[in-house]
Write a structure and sequence with these properties.
The chain is of the alpha+beta class. It is built from 5 helices and 7 strands. It has a 7-stranded mixed beta sheet with strand order 1-2-3-4-5-7-6. Strand 6 and strand 7 form a beta hairpin. It is globular, with a radius of gyration of 16 Å.
């Protein structure tokens, strides 16, 4: 049986499921790129759900559905794009900039991509990224940028994003989380 992946905007009732998915993704999929201490502190400091993206309708979930049971989809991934200045960070991130961007001048922000570990490496990240880029293009953006984790940067490079700088995100425990600022022009 061929699985079906459906993408839809996240809604507030998804938030508990998304939090659990994000924690599983960070703890397992980022283990080769970050220490346990970095991952746990990042979950408390920067990684998580950004409810502004949910409110804006630009945070998406990918659901897995079987044809014989369409009423019980499983959320397998989440990620979004933003028309706001904040490059990365969830609700608890203190360096937020919610000013609205100008699509003629600014790049849309690709944000907060997390794949459940049980569903990794099945093309879901690529599917989600395409949906985000399409949404941002529909809003008038022709450029995209992100603060990619070392784990996510591997996918984004294959999809045409180029590194433009290295950033060190300060964490509550005194460590930092290296990420890569990346851009793409369509």
């Amino acid at each position: 049986m061929q699985p079906n992946f459906c993408i839809r905007p996240a809604v507030p009732s998804d938030i508990p499921v998304l939090r659990a998915l994000i924690e599983a993704s960070v703890r397992q999929l980022q283990a080769d790129d970050y220490t346990s201490s970095q991952r746990e502190s990042a979950l408390a400091t920067v990684f998580g759900v950004d409810t502004q993206l949910v409110a804006d309708g630009t945070y998406l979930v990918v659901e897995y559905c079987l044809a014989e049971s369409p009423a019980s989809p499983i959320v397998v991934a989440c990620g979004g794009w933003s028309k706001r200045k904040t490059l990365y960070g969830a609700d608890q991130w203190t360096d937020r900039h919610d000013d609205v961007l100008d699509p003629q001048r600014d790049a849309a922000k690709i944000r907060a991509f997390f794949i459940h570990p049980d569903w990794a490496r099945r093309g879901i990240g690529t599917l989600l990224l395409q949906a985000c880029e399409d949404g941002a293009k529909s809003a008038g953006f022709s450029r995209f940028e992100m603060g990619a984790t070392l784990t996510g940067a591997k996918l984004f490079r294959t999809r045409g994003y180029v590194p433009v700088g290295n950033l060190e995100v300060p964490l509550r425990n005194g460590e930092s989380l290296p990420i890569i600022q990346m851009e793409k022009v369509t």
